[in-house]
Design goal:
Number of strands: 13
Number of helices: 27
Distance between the termini: 112 Å
Radius of gyration: 40 Å
Number of domains: 4
Strand order of the largest sheet: 4-3-2-1-5
Helix content: 55-70%
Largest sheet: 5 strands, antiparallel
Length: 648
């Protein structure tokens, strides 16, 4: 016996003969009983060893298995003991496998590093999952479930089920139950249990559940009569399920081909039959057409010197004699029938979930359009001004948020500061525009439109000169990161939820101002009948300035909200000006609730068109504009029409 092997045997006998030492080093004692297989593992011999280690229940085994899989275990040549080993130059720093205590160092040439191959590492990973499913650390349990998701195994089904009852974390418990159903469907052998798992999946909309059900319904295409007991999905019909060419290709793959005579075969037979310038008595000179050649060939067939052409129904006969069927890979028809019914129910649930998700998207987009357009609706309704620079107020608000974040790095605090500051900045810009330009162009809509358009271009260029042409970041706080996800289909980002809440707050604020304050009373009076309001002592100029400040300030706040998820550039406002005007016109000029209705209609319409034609967003914009043109023809005053002389 070699000296090293004798030494290992002696150490093992010493460990076994000393109860106290064995109790102090139970992992080492167990490892020594499998020392040879651990040193030279193979997939054939190592599985019983790993099973023995896993079934021992020793708390130190998971750490050993993890280190072994990561090539962090060494065996000291002098005595055959195993250690956690870290390579440092020409030395291994050793730690005891029982407790991890320092065990000194050993030269690189005096120890052997255990290097399991890929197959052995997979077996180790499977064994680790058994321990991790009940590990006190929730992160380790989640890691075990992720590993099980990537590589489901029938061997781990029983440990997974056993761990469900003792699981205290609700989310992890739900994940364990889901994995139990998924693995049962795939690997289970008990039909009632598999049927129960399929029934559970019929209430889900997750991608995993749909993939598992589709996995039960995979088929193979067979040519000819299926074997006895085959679970036939359907018999394919030519013209409905596949083309004639596809059917012939399947037949040809099985060396089942209809007899055929090509033109080359025909011509070869005719040439071979030429005798004294004739073919079976027919002059060669007369065989100048296809019809004549085929007719001559038929005389050869009648004489028995050429093979006959196949009948016209040869392909139909072949397909009748050799049906093409799809056969389920799953042998049990009860399982496939249940899977088909469950998948139909899941697809119905998915369709409803997609409708709900589309509704959330439409609501989110409508909130953005409402914020962008409500200021324009107020100023347009009160002053009749077509303000093409309204989008630049949105842009100024976004850049205000960016500047605040450069000064205040805390994103939550900076957002709290940026929202009111953006209102003030945009409101001041709106007042300046109204005082310096618009009031001097009163009742001259064409000049006002051109002037505000020119101002919008000028403001964009000024911002480019200050901030550059590249987009700048407006970062949202951590509590606005991510998305609220109901399932694999329905979800909406927290930023969009925040914008919806912001839109609802402004809706309530504007309704209160317009219905419960003196300014609101004056705005409504000027909107409905400016002449009568002036005769009652209301200053239309002052009301117009206040209204312009309010509408512009709201646009600035909208800019901060939009900048949290969109690029902040000098041209960002131009992307919302068209939608803002459409929202105002469709909803009804000067009406808060009309703007809300218009935003909802346009947002829902745009998302609906994009859903039907997701590959072409430009088409969605085009169809939406066409719809709005038709809508205005039917209802020119909008959804909520204003009353009074101004409405005329």
């Amino acid at each position: 016996m070699p000296f090293a092997a004798l030494t290992r045997c002696l150490i093992a006998l010493m460990l076994l003969s000393q109860p106290v030492s064995a109790q102090d080093a139970p992992v080492q004692t167990l490892l020594q009983t499998h020392a040879e297989d651990l040193a030279k593992p193979s997939r054939r011999t190592i599985q019983p060893v790993i099973d023995d280690l896993a079934e021992s229940g020793l708390p130190g085994i998971p750490s050993f298995l993890e280190a072994w899989a990561d090539k962090g275990i060494v065996q000291r040549d002098a005595d055959g003991l195993f250690f956690f080993g870290t390579r440092e130059g020409d030395l291994y720093v050793l730690r005891d496998v029982d407790g991890g205590a320092d065990a000194g160092t050993v030269g690189r040439r005096e120890a052997t590093e255990l290097k399991p191959n890929a197959g052995v590492r997979r077996l180790i990973g499977t064994a680790l999952v058994r321990f991790q499913l009940n590990d006190p650390d929730p992160d380790r349990r989640r890691a075990a479930l992720e590993s099980l998701t990537r590589s489901p195994s029938e061997d781990l089904l029983a440990p997974l089920r056993a761990s469900i009852d003792t699981e205290e974390d609700a989310a992890i418990r739900a994940r364990k139950i889901a994995l139990d159903r998924l693995i049962t469907v795939q690997f289970g052998s008990d039909v009632p249990t598999r049927l129960a798992a399929i029934d559970w999946m019929s209430d889900q909309v997750s991608l995993e559940a749909r993939a598992a059900l589709n996995g039960l319904l995979t088929t193979d295409t067979l040519v000819g009569t299926p074997p006895a007991g085959a679970n036939v999905a359907r018999i394919l019909q030519v013209g409905r399920d596949l083309t004639e060419r596809q059917a012939l290709e399947l037949l040809a793959a099985e060396d089942i081909l209809p007899p055929d005579v090509t033109r080359a075969d025909r011509d070869a037979a005719l040439v071979a039959a030429i005798d004294a310038g004739t073919v079976n008595g027919i002059p060669v000179a007369s065989l100048s057409t296809e019809e004549a050649r085929w007719s001559a060939y038929e005389t050869l067939v009648s004489a028995g010197t050429a093979p006959p052409r196949p009948p016209l129904d040869a392909i139909e006969t072949l397909l009748s004699d050799n049906p093409i069927t799809e056969v389920y890979d799953e042998d049990d028809p009860v399982i496939t029938t249940a899977a088909e019914a469950a998948l139909a129910e899941v697809e119905s649930r998915v369709a409803r979930a997609q409708a709900a998700d589309l509704g959330l998207d439409a609501l989110s987009l409508a909130s953005i359009y409402f914020l962008a357009a409500i200021g324009l609706a107020i100023t347009f309704g009160v002053m009749g001004v077509i303000n093409m620079a309204h989008g630049e107020f949105i842009m100024l608000g976004a850049y205000t948020g960016y500047v605040v974040q450069q000064v205040v790095p805390d994103y939550t605090v900076s957002l709290i500061i940026a929202l009111p500051l953006a209102f003030v900045v945009a409101a001041a810009a709106g007042v300046a525009l109204e005082r310096l330009v618009i009031r001097h162009l009163a009742h001259r809509p064409l000049e006002t439109l051109l002037a505000t358009f020119g101002i919008s271009v000028a403001v964009q260029q000024i911002v480019k000169n200050i901030f550059g042409t590249q987009a700048v970041p407006l970062t949202s706080p951590d509590w606005l990161a991510g998305a609220w996800t109901l399932n694999d289909v329905v979800g909406i980002s927290y930023i969009r939820i925040g914008i919806f809440v912001l839109a609802a707050l402004f809706l309530g604020l504007l309704v209160y101002i317009l219905r419960r304050t003196r300014l609101g009373l004056e705005v409504r009076a000027v909107t409905q009948n400016p002449g009568m309001a002036a005769s009652l002592g209301i200053d239309p100029d002052r009301v117009g300035m206040a209204t312009f400040a309010l509408g512009s300030g709201i646009a600035g706040v909208a800019g901060v909200a939009i900048g949290l998820f969109a690029q902040v550039t000098s041209e960002m406002g131009a992307g919302y000006i068209v939608q803002s005007f459409m929202t105002v016109v469709v909803g009804g000029v000067g009406s808060v609730f009309g703007t809300l209705a218009g935003a909802g209609l346009i947002g829902g319409l745009q998302k609906g068109i994009e859903f039907l034609n997701p590959s072409n967003t430009l088409a969605a914009q085009t169809y939406m504009i066409l719809f709005i043109i038709l809508f205005i023809q039917v209802r020119p005053r909008g959804i909520v029409a204003q009353k009074g002389r101004h409405a005329q």
